[in-house]
Amino acid sequence: MKDAKVEVLMYGPKLTLDEKYIQKDSQEEIQSKLSEYYSKGYQLAHTNTTEYSGNLYIYLYFEKIV
User: Fold this and answer.
1) Based on the structure, what is the number of domains in the chain?
2) Element (H, E) at 22
3) How far apart are CA 7 and CA 47, in angstroms?
4) How confident is the model over 3-61, as pLDDT tens digits?
5) Which residues, other chains included, contact 44 with Cβ-Cβ below 8 Å and sequence gap of 6+?
6) What single DSSP character describes residue 4?
7) Which uninterrupted H or E stretch holds 12?
8) What integer pLDDT is reported at residue 22 of this predicted model?
9) 39: alpha, beta or left, given left = phi > 0 and alpha = psi -120 to 50?
């Protein structure tokens, strides 16, 4: 049997001249979530992104066999 978890991270627009600010802002948070779930025995099974109203939503799907 598998135990599954979903984490949703949201990033919104901000005034900046750096066109890669979402990459820079999200990298640390995504790495933190990966480390957190890996330490609990989960593995990253799938990812997905959507954009709605100018916000970027990143979905991280984790699972582990129990």
Assistant:
1) 1
2) helix 21-39
3) 10
4) 999 999 999 888 888 888 888 888 999 999 999 999 999 999 999 999 999 899 999 99
5) 34, 37, 60, 61, 62
6) E
7) none
8) 81
9) alpha
Q: Which domain holds residue 42?
A: 2-65
Q: Which residues of 11-42 are buried (b: 16+ CB within 10 A; e: fewer)?
A: beeeeeeeeeebeeeeeeebeebbeebeeeeb
pTM of the model: 0.84
- Rounded to whole angstroms, how far apart are CA atoms 61 and 7? 7
Q: CA-to-CA distance for 29 and 10, rounded, in angstroms?
A: 11
Residue 17's SS3 state is coil
pLDDT of residue 26: 87
Give the C-alpha separation, 15 to 4, whole Å: 36
The tokens for 29 are 């948070």
